[in-house]
Amino acid sequence: MANSGKVSGAVVRRLPGYYRYLCDLERDGLVRISSQELGSRMGLTASQIRQDINCFGGFGQQGYGYNVSELRKRIGEILGLDEQYSMVVVGAGNIGQGLAKYSGFRRQGFVVKAMFDRHPEHIGAQADDVAVLPVEELEEYVRENQIAIGVITTPAASAQQICDVLVKGGVRAIWNFASVDLNVPEGIALQNVHLSDTLMVLSYHMRNQRPKD
Amino acid sequence: MANSGKVSGAVVRRLPGYYRYLCDLERDGLVRISSQELGSRMGLTASQIRQDINCFGGFGQQGYGYNVSELRKRIGEILGLDEQYSMVVVGAGNIGQGLAKYSGFRRQGFVVKAMFDRHPEHIGAQADDVAVLPVEELEEYVRENQIAIGVITTPAASAQQICDVLVKGGVRAIWNFASVDLNVPEGIALQNVHLSDTLMVLSYHMRNQRPKD
């Protein structure tokens, strides 16, 4: 087993990209790929690729490239994708419902078990097969169903409180879409997806780099 | 006017965070804030804050801190948020519909004008007030309605082709949610939001940093 405990955050953030590219290559029937070729597809240098992959132990032989299936499988294991994760989505608004219904996550092993909302008009509504439950039941539900990931799509003002309840219930990770930075105790994984932030980066570039007209 | 043309990508990616924090502070009625205080809220050092903000010209006076409203307004201008942007969403699946219906973007000046889809069963359906049109009409619609931003939520396999059509129609920016890295010509802004990638980073951390049990 490679020692993946010391891997830098930047390498970890690149791993899903490797996984995506390797899945595509495997689907296209490619058996081996060189670090040069993989790098040119991913917009990285061959040496960067070799360094990243070496973090996880010995893959490939100098001059022979990597076995695509083997490397895809091993990176999947490193990413923990050989396990299934149950999730709850808190906040049954449009973004929450979109995420809960999206089948792509389920295919990758991330399964939404229930949604929660504070507003009665949402409660009981079904986002496809996912029930919307009252937020008062959140902590108990998380504990009893051993939910691994709490997805937060509430307004910013209630996000930290919901996060605390999820952590108290026993989730191991928070996937936050609320427009606020959250605090979690050590040992709990956190990813913030600030959708509006990426839109603002787009408008920045439109303002500062207008196309010639 | 500050020369914001030479600002690094890292500073640009931090700007929406500044904007968010300053909006919250303004809402809470705070008039002035020091770089120390802003830094401690944002998890940055005071010197980092001063450096970032100095990229955009002279704000605040040594020892007096920043005027919250003024700085919020100026960063909003730098981000181009004093303008309204029209968007189309291509791909009327769950993620696409969630984004199209979400009112938060509209409040920030990003307005979805129409959705497009290839599949007849989605076409004509209404995501609230947004019509779903056939993808064959995309290029003409973008051109005639001077759409600024194309949002792509299609399967990975068709995303690059849709991107090319959007660019041909005249969009200035692409907001990509498809699970593939896209190529755009120079002068077109691009932000990839690979939702699955952030989920995989969560599962990596769950695999590699299990809570003590």
Your description of this structure?
Two copies of one chain form a homodimer. With 213 residues, chain A is an alpha/beta fold. Helix content of chain A is 45%, strand content 17%. Chain A contains nine helices and nine strands. In chain A, the strands form two sheets. A seven-stranded mixed β-sheet of chain A has the order 5-6-4-3-7-8-9. In chain A, strand 7, helix 8 and strand 8 form a beta-alpha-beta unit. Chain A is globular. The model of chain A has no long low-confidence stretch (mean pLDDT 89).
SSE topology:
2 copies of one chain form a homodimer.
Chain A: H1 9-27, E1 32-33, H2 35-42, H3 46-54, E2 66-67, H4 68-78, E3 85-90, H5 94-101, H6 103-107, E4 110-117, E5 126-127, E6 130-134, H7 138-144, E7 149-152, H8 156-169, E8 173-176, E9 189-192, H9 195-208
Parallel strand pairs in A: 3-4, 3-7, 4-6, 7-8, 8-9
Antiparallel strand pairs in A: 1-2, 5-6
Helix pairs in contact in A: 1-4, 2-3, 7-8
Can I get a quick summary?
Two copies of one chain form a homodimer. Chain A has 213 residues and is of the alpha/beta class. Chain A has helices spanning 9-27, 35-42, 46-54, 68-78, 94-101, 103-107, 138-144, 156-169, 195-208, and strands spanning 32-33, 66-67, 85-90, 110-117, 126-127, 130-134, 149-152, 173-176, 189-192.
